[in-house]
Design a protein that fits this description.
With 137 residues, this protein is an alpha+beta fold. The chain has one domain: HIT family, subunit A, CATH 3.30.428. Helices cover 31% and strands 18% of the residues. The protein has 3 helices and 5 strands. The chain has a 5-stranded antiparallel sheet with strand order 1-2-3-5-4, covered by helices on one side. The longest helix is centred in the middle third of the chain and has 22 residues. The chain is globular. The termini are far apart. Bound molecules: guanosine-5'-monophosphate (5GP) and zinc ion. The site of zinc ion has 5 residues, from helix 1.
Length: 137
């Protein structure tokens, strides 16, 4: 398959690997937002959260938990953002599911997790909550 992250997993494209197990591969982002920017991916190709099975997703999240601790121990950041983008509308660029670990330092100037707080229309919030709850049934 013509997927750059699959090629990274099978070694066709080199990467700075930091972790691997039977289900998961993790490596340094080539365009780091900050030092310690790590990507965690499933070995079995899945484009987004909607294609990955629960087992593989949990394996990715479990490795993410382990790696967040290692990044903290290694770099002592003031905080960590976890990012996981699904679909072009959500700014996903590489269509192989991945979790970003982005270490953060106070005053680092990244705007990655900043948004303007605007009060919601509570009636609409309630209606959408009903739709979601009905969809869980
Ligand atoms: P997305 O916007 O899809 O969540 O982010 C894709 C990420 O993959 C970006 O942060 C980008 O820097 C990273 N990336 C893209 N191509 C490569 C590559 O060939 N090697 C590595 N290590 N990272 C890559
Ligand atoms: Zn892939």
């Amino acid at each position: 398959m013509d997927c750059i992250f699959c090629k990274i997993i099978n070694g066709e494209i080199p990467s700075e690997k930091v972790y691997e197990d039977d289900k998961v591969f993790a490596f340094m982002d080539i365009n780091p937002l900050n030092d310690g920017h790590v990507l965690i991916i499933p070995k079995s190709h899945a484009g987004t959260i909607h294609e990955i099975g629960e087992d593989d997703f949990l394996a990715v999240m479990s490795a993410t938990h382990k790696l967040a601790a290692a990044v903290r121990k290694a770099l002592n950041p003031d905080g960590i953002n976890l990012l996981q983008l699904n679909g072009k509308a959500a700014n996903q660029v590489v269509p192989h599911l991945h979790v970003h670990i982005v270490p953060r330092w106070s005053g680092d100037g990244l705007t990655v997790s900043q948004w303007e707080i605007v009060a919601g229309n509570m009636e609409k919030v309630k209606n959408v909550a009903e739709q979601i709850k009905n969809s869980l049934k």
